[in-house]
Amino acid sequence: MGSKTTITVVPRPEGTSGADKGGPYRQSILNHLTFGLSKDMYSATSRDKFNAVVLSVRAAMIKNWIRTSQQYYHSDAKRVYYLSLEFLLGRLLHSYLINLNLSDQYREAVDVLDTSFENVLEHEWDAALGNGGLGRLAACFLDSMATLQYPCYGYGIRYEYGIFSQRIKDGSQSEAPDNWLRYGNFWEFPRAELLYPVRFYGTVQTFGSDGRTKSAWVETDDILAMAYDYPVPGYRNDFVNTLRLWAAKSTRDFNLEYFNSGDYVKAVEDKNNSENISKVLYPNDYSLAGKELRLKQQYFFVAATLGDVLRRYKKFHNTYDTFPQKVAIQLNDTHPSIAIPELMRILVDEEGLEWEDAWAITARTTSYTNHTVLPEALETWSEELVGHLLPRHLQIIQEIDRRFLIQVKRRFPEDPARTERTAIITGDTGRTVHMARLAIVGSHTTNGVSRLHTDILEAATFNDFYLMYPERFQNVTNGITYRRWLIESNPGLSALITESIGDAWTRDLENLRGLEEFSADDGFCKAFNEVKQGNKRRLAAYLEKNHKIILNPSFLLDCQAKRFHEYKRQLLNLFHAITLYNRLTDGRETDLFTPRTILFSGKSAPGYLLCKLVIKLIHNVADVIAAHPSVRDKLQVVFVPNYGVTLAQFIIPATELSEQISTAGYEASGTGNMKFMLNGALTLGTLDGANVEIRDEVGEENFFRFGLDSNEVQALRAGYNPKKYIEENDDLKRIIRQLESGFFSPENPSLFRPILDSLLDGDHYLVLADYASYIERQQEVSAAYRDRGEWTTKAIVNVARSGKFSSDRAVAEYARNIWNVSPLSPHEPL
Ligand code: NBG
User: What CA–CA distance (Å, rounded) separates 660 from 319?
Assistant: First the structure.
């Protein structure tokens, strides 16, 4: 664990250099426009042009896609199945061109369409099949798995509607559907022949006696899962992996009963109802209300995926003895954890294995990643619902639980309370099924996503399980793909780095260390600043064009871009903005004031009223500041609507200060923190999640740390008195008074009362306790930014030491320590 791996991406010779790189690709684009879309240059819309390019690019990778599958097949490689209810992919075109080493060629070739490369890219709708960190992590991992040549498949749901689009009206969030498939999607390959029936409801019949009973799940209501495949090309290595997403299709199309009775419309209605399963992504990232449709989604994609896994396995094997040697199943959070009883059901009921054998196979095949310790996000289901929807699975879970509790009692006979704390099913009436407990008990490895997070899992959240199975717990600190988050989104910095240290970093991010020797080099620092300024201007132009937001690119750009949640404490950041406003209007800030833009971007879960109110407060504070004749020349607060992958690719390269200010102990890892660092922002952060490791890498002098650490947070809880912090601090007192008096909402003075109440009645996330320390550190940030030479050196050191946070490192750790798979050897040249 934690040992260093060097990951080297196998390079492919550079593409042809010299004149007319676009040559052969022009013809391909035109052919696809004509024969794929039946358009000519007169009738082609800009979307047609984009689609023609997509068709041409996917054609360029198809041979390698087929070859990659063949290589997996012929070598009977151990496959890894990454099961995730979310893949937050973003746009694919540019990223795929970079990986295929064709971006220069297509940049030129698109001139046959009388358009520019940027114009073409802009027509792609973000594939936003995820909420935030967890879904984006899955997308970064897909890129690394293909790049490192691991035989991995992503499996998920092809939602018809991705994460909602955030609209802001009068400063408040509203949600609009994300109809991303409206204009078709030429990346996907529908596999109409690849259909699996998925069963729901029904009853369980039991046959036989003498402990040799057999069970059958019957009288079910079935729907079909149909596969849609997406190619996932690796970075310049001719490997193309597969992401397979399932869509629900009705089995009712030919329901004779309805047709015979003449009720055609009823038949069609039923068809629509069952297809609802893959209709929409649930937009709540941290609170999982036990909705039946959500459980249906989970079982739907798990059942189809396991059907596919077994089909592939059975091509070569007629016993299950080697299943764990050939298959690894990674559960991305507990969302797919119904895979454990499903695999048991298949092995015991359908394949006739003994329980013990099936159990050993299941546990040796699956592993589970935990992504949060927030109690409201640890999934549970009512036993009643599970029993209604999946009656056989409930029996299996009950049996798993029964056997597990026997072990618990054997190990800890003196401690009956432990049973309630660890049981998979708890309660007397209205019993509850705990999915994380099921996932830990039924798998061989549970991992956290940063060192601190894993420590907390072991010492607190899952301590009872850790004491039972210490060997099952591991840490794999998250990572990000620098192909998207540096090469694609920050071409200026990428070019500068390559000019200075060569391009070895594009194959192994650890090579960025070579930049350190330039960190105080005047010429390099100047060029580095010019790149940053250029990125700030690019963001400013984007915001002006798309949102009518005007930025001043000479201000310090201070960003917090992530989902809204109380634990992430956007409110604390806003309190800093209000503090600066108050001090400026009082004349308490000197001439030395460092002008800044405080930028917020992020969505709130639709039902999370407090966060929605914080968004509203941000807008109102922004308006008050913008209306002040002198303050507005020095301070700006902006909220950029509809945060997503594409927007992040504009914001992050421009950012100078990265706000990572969660209450210590609550952010499992964070991955935005890594993206900002890689792009030369300095972090202002608590000792939480991967911030701890970022600070270890860059050194405390290159990181602005503030606030309580996770132990102090726990220690403070017992006697915590939020009012004390208000009494002790005049700036804070003033903010509280402003909120009380309706200073930011004169037309409705009590509007922000719920925010105030959340602070005064408990302040669960300790905004008040960390306020003074935060403001103090912010003043140091301002002072540091005035010494631009020093600041730049620190920023360069941050870039140079971000190698650890590559998702290549993370995926290689999973492969070695959890999946036990090796990379495949390179393909022969075509
Ligand atoms: C998030 C955590 C982040 C972490 C990502 C990826 C969920 C439920 N959890 O801290 O909050 O970086 O997962 O691991 O989205």
Answer: 50
Compute, in degrees rounded to 10, the torsion defined by CA atoms 68, 69, 70, 72: 90
562 is catalytic: yes
Torsion region of 38: left, alpha or beta (phi above 0 gives left; psi -120 to 50 gives alpha): left
In the numeric block, which tokens belong to residue 353? Answer: 């294995």
DSSP letter assigned to residue 236: S
Q: 500 C-alpha vs ligand 1 centroid, how far in Å?
A: 35
Q: Phi, psi at residue 403, to the nearest 5°?
A: -65, -40
Active site residue 39: no
319: annotated active-site residue: no
Calpha distance 807→138 (Å, rounded): 10
Cβ pair 155, 174 in contact under 8 A: no
State how far Cα 334 lies from the chain centre: 15
Active site residue 724: no
pLDDT of residue 255: 59
Query: Does the C-beta of 662 come closer than 6 Å to ligand 1?
Result: no
Kindly state if the Cβ of 130 falls inside 6 Å of ligand 1. Answer: no
Which one is catalytic: 671, 683, 792, 793?
A: 671
Q: Which amino acid is at 498?
A: T
Is 379 touching ligand 1 by the criterion CB < 6 Å?
no
What number of helices (H) and strands (E) belong to the chain? 33, 24
Work out the burial of residue 784: count CB atoms within 10 Å of its CB; fewer than 13 is exposed, 13-18 middle, 19 or more buried. middle
Going from the C-alpha of 100 to that of each of 93, 202, 351, the distances in angstroms are: 10, 48, 42
State residue 213's pLDDT score: 83
Distances (CA, A) of 62 to 35, 66, 238, 345: 17, 6, 10, 37
Note the pLDDT tens digit of each residue in 556-576: 999 999 999 999 999 999 999
Quote the tokens at residue 613.
């109110």
Query: What is the separation, in whole angstroms, between the first and last Cα of the chain?
Result: 38
* 675, 794, 801, 804: the active-site residue: 675
State residue 493's pLDDT score.
98
Residue minimizing CA distance to atom 13 of ligand 1: 134
pLDDT score of 9: 55
In the predicted model, residues of the chain with pLDDT beneath 50 are: 1-5, 10-18
- The one-letter amino acid code at 737 reads R
Phi-psi region for residue 659, left (φ > 0), alpha (ψ -120 to 50) or beta? beta
702 within ligand 1 shell (Cβ under 6 A): no
Please report where in the chains the tokens 């068809």 appear, as a residue: 271
Q: Whose CA is nearest to atom 9 of ligand 1?
A: 371
Spatial separation of the C-alpha atoms in residues 410 and 420, rounded to whole Å: 15
Can 675 be counted among the known catalytic residues? yes
State the pairing for strand pair 445-448/473-475. Answer: parallel
